[in-house]
Request: fold
Amino acid sequence: MTVRAPRQRDTDGQTGRETGRGHACRAAFRRVALAVTLLAGSAPSAPAQTPSAPQLPVVLIPAVPTPAPAAERPLRAGVLEGTAPPRAGVDGQFSQGLLPDLMRMVADDLARPVEMISVPRKRIYQILATDQIDLVCTLAEGWIPTPERPRFALSVPLFSEQNVIVGMALSGSAAAETPEAGRPEAGKPEAGRPDVAPVLNGLKDLAGTIATVRGYLYPDLDPLFAAGTLTRIDAPDEAAALKMVTHGRTRYAILNRMVYGWNSRTVPPSAPFPLPLLLMRPEPVYCAVSATGPERDAVLGALRRIAASGQVEQRVLGLQDVWR
Reply:
């Protein structure tokens, strides 16, 4: 029996074709690897004689910036809108005056730059509590609404402020007359009596209209406002309130003694100027920081050292002098 050998498969051509594809694939891999290497910024290596696995792209991750140290970050100091000279706003610059100078002293004590930020009075508590500023000066404890107080930490008392109620002087027999309580239209002179301002023996004698500052609290006057015997007419700041009473638009004005003394220096002796009628009780004033803010301890410590030096108190006493 004849056994037929199996037919041998001719693979020469197929093998040749497969070998050609292998060279092409290896060349393609080398081209891809070279391109990735160039993109990654490194020098290409010599092509390998044997096939190698394809290289993965190199991903460059940018460095994450680290926060600036506290010593380099500016101290953010809030200056309340409507703060009149000399406390702020001297020479038309809200960052010039007693309070900005005080905040610069704090920054110097901490070896930090300072950034002055103008803050709306009605939003001051929200802005401070949310750490948008590091401190604000000056506040009396009674000015902070009771529900807001736990959110803040107050400094030691820095100095005392005192409001004064002023009015235009009466002449002749008019000085002996008692003013009638009235409620004139806001912004208008009191009917027939634009300059009525008798001597006051106490708050109980106040009646009529009084120029106040928008957004300011006057706890001692609240009972008179509630009873309707005294009507507040708001001005944008204390200097404007002083002008209102000077021009007879209100019977009285209430303002800080420093503001009254400062404005007395710019008025000629022959020009009309309101007289002080009643001094309110002095109130200690403070700076405030957020109770949970990161700057709390450092700022409060600086304020303790400044208060102990007595520099601010001496300057306040000088600003209260009346030059007339």
Summary: The longest helix spans residues 12-39. Helices lie at 12-39, 98-109, 124-129, 222-227, 238-246, 257-264, 296-309, 311-319.
